[in-house]
Amino acid sequence: MLKRLYHWILSWADSRWGATALFILAFAESSFFPIPPDVLLIALCLGCTTKAFRYALICTAGSVLGALAGYAIGHFLWLTPSGEFTAVADFFFRIIPGFTHTEYDKISEVYNQYNFWVVFTAGFTPIPYKLITITAGVFSLNLPMFVLASVVSRGLRFFLFAWLIWRYGAPIKVFIDKYFNILAIAFTVLLIGSFVAVKYLIQ
């Protein structure tokens, strides 16, 4: 089913509604949809490299707005006044791959310590972003900080895709498909590590 969904998404790259579909996909993926918008973004950029950065901007805007929707779901619809999971929460546990009660508890444990970096890491790396946007709302993460982390991480990710395709064209797609997730994780680890190192050096 996911494979059919993947190819259906790619088919929008040949449509005049491709940019609109990209925005909707980016919005939905930040709160519930399983397929990341990168696949359509790459296809659209390959189809018209001169519009690559425009597509990246559309993708970033849709993703950040979707992140706010995910935040709202978590903040307003996730728990009852008594602290029990609502029917909405149970629904999302069923439809989001890998989102279990165990994962929810793990995420809750790291928010107080890492805040910005939790959102940034999920936004830039292959970690499902929707898991973070919803739980950020549940735990009432500082909203301006949440938006900033979303804009920075999603913008870096999508504009990097756009720049690579604008600069190198179709051949870079093989590289992106094969190595981007590994490089994204490595970049994030190094970035966070550098800030941790600075923190300890100035103490």
Automatic annotation (TrEMBL):
The keyword Ribosomal protein does not apply. The chain crosses the membrane at residues 20-43, 55-78, 182-202. Pfam families: VTT_dom. InterPro entries: DedA_domain, VTT_dom. It comes from the Bacteria. GO terms for cellular component: plasma membrane. It comes from Alistipes indistinctus YIT 12060. Keywords: Membrane, Transmembrane, Transmembrane helix. This is VTT domain-containing protein. Residues 36-164 form the VTT domain.
